[in-house]
Amino acid sequence: MSLVLGATLLVGTSCEDQSCRDALQAAQTAADTALKSVTAKQDELIAVKGSLTAAQTELAKVRKDLEAAKASVDPGPEDSLEALRKSKICNEPVLYSQVKEEVLIRHFFNDKENGFFLDVGCSDYKNISTTYYLEKHLHWKGIGVDAIGKYAADYLKYRPGTRFRNYAVSNHSGGTIDFYTEDGYEVFSSTVKEAIFRIPKPVTVKVPVITLNDLLKKEKVNHIDFLSMDIEAGEIKALEGFDIKKYRPLLVCIEVQPEMGTYFANEISNYFQNNGYEKMEAYTQFEGASNWYFKPKGYQRKDKN
Fold it and tell me: What's the chain's Rg over C-alpha atoms?
């Protein structure tokens, strides 16, 4: 029987002697005390509920702020062209690359430090370089390959993190290959004769030839974060000698000259599609030039550590 109920029964009981009246009074006092305690507990419960409601409101506000903060971070590479246009990194000035390759590469890796690149057709160590920013500002290392050997001295002097190798890259190794070039027009040089229409008076030189697979094996490379390839229509044969499934670069920037026609473009597209890569249309549109960008299907950019 509860204390309050017992007191109620006693109140309804007729008591004539003093001891009974005293017991009844004591019971009534105890009941009043218990009632006050219950009321106090109810007030405490109401206060706790109020605090819980306030905490839930604050949590909702924190979640909303967190979502807003996430939205302010550079959008991932899967996002739209409009998202790239709003990206902080993509709106920074280009320091070294020919067009917007530099900021798109930075955006994809979110300024990740200490990565590894393979720059095929690397050209000058600094001017129009897709990898100079990575090495100079983000401490990347890598391999630069070019058929023009005169670049070697500057790489040795200014690019200590890059191993420069003087080769033309193709689908076979060993011996030499014809390379069409001219002083002052080196960036248009190629092993593909049909691609040198920008060179007024090309000369043919012999350069050592190698596949990327043999080069990477020779250099003891097991992983590539970023692959850049710009070898004036030599890309198809270079890819034939590259096991992309083994080295699995996270981002590929490759030049696809429109002058080479739909066959060339289709061959490039099919190579990447058949090897589990997808084209990043927003990157190509944002750059507005002749580079195509690919990443492994389903790969999501990681935030900076």
Answer: 36
| Contact (CB, 8 A) for 143 and 163 | yes
- Claim: this prediction has a pTM higher than 0.90: no
Query: Which residues have CB under 8 Å from 34's CB, separation 6+?
Result: 3, 4
Dihedral angle computed from the Cα positions of residues 118, 122, 126 and 128, in that order, rounded to the nearest 10 degrees: -110
Domain ranges across the chain: 3-64, 81-296
CATH superfamily assigned to domain 81-296: Vaccinia Virus protein VP39 (3.40.50.150)
Q: How many CB atoms lie within 10 A of CB 67?
A: 10
Out of 71-75, 139-143, 225-229, which region has the weakest mean confidence (pLDDT)?
71-75
In this predicted model, what pLDDT tens digit does every residue of 209-247 receive, in sequence order? 999 999 999 999 999 999 999 998 899 999 999 999 999
What is the spatial distance between Cα 130 and Cα 70, in angstroms, rounded to a whole number? 28
When pLDDT is cut at 50, 70 and 90, the band that residue 23 belongs to is confident
> What sign for the dihedral angle of Cα 124, 260, 274, 277?
positive
